[in-house]
Design goal:
Elements (H helix, E strand, L loop, with lengths): L6 H7 L10 H8 L7 E2 L2 E6 L6 E4 L8 H13 L2 E5 L3 E5 L5 E6 L6 E4 L6 H11 L3
Helix pairs in contact: 3-4
Length: 135
């Protein structure tokens, strides 16, 4: 399965230069791109991570971490050559180089997955997380 296909959309959201950081009109023009609806694997793209800029997808269920689903997440990590780093919420990081490729958040009334758009197996990972973490 491919990388995420929303890269061009993400690029339209980012500040193109520091010179435009105080330009309200330039911001409003970038914000217009948010009206475009995007989905990957049937999951809606709901925004970008504030600090990381990774696209964020809503899972179709709520999620509360427990022993069973954290073990499942670790198994998924193994299958994708990743390990789980448990911070505020779990992150999947590549064994080779420790690059973060995904994070799964459970703080809201629905679960979300943040994915590195350039990760070669991003869509496959999103589908796997959706299917195997479902309560």
């Amino acid at each position: 399965m491919p990388k995420l296909t929303v890269g061009p959309w993400i690029a339209t959201q980012k500040l193109p230069s520091k010179a435009l950081a105080r330009d309200r009109q330039a911001f409003l023009e970038r914000a217009q791109h948010r009206l475009q609806v995007h989905e990957v694997a049937g999951l809606p793209l709901i925004g970008l991570g504030g600090s990381c800029g990774k696209p964020c997808f809503a899972l179709p269920y709520t999620l509360s971490w427990n022993d069973t689903n954290t073990r499942e997440l670790e198994q998924i990590g193994t299958e994708f050559e990743c390990f789980v780093e448990y911070g505020v919420y779990p992150h999947l990081k590549l064994l080779d180089g420790e690059q973060e490729v995904a994070a799964v958040q459970d703080w809201t009334t629905f679960a979300t997955v943040y994915l590195r758009p350039g990760y070669e197996r991003a869509e496959e990972l999103l589908i796997t997380l959706r299917d195997r973490l479902a309560p």
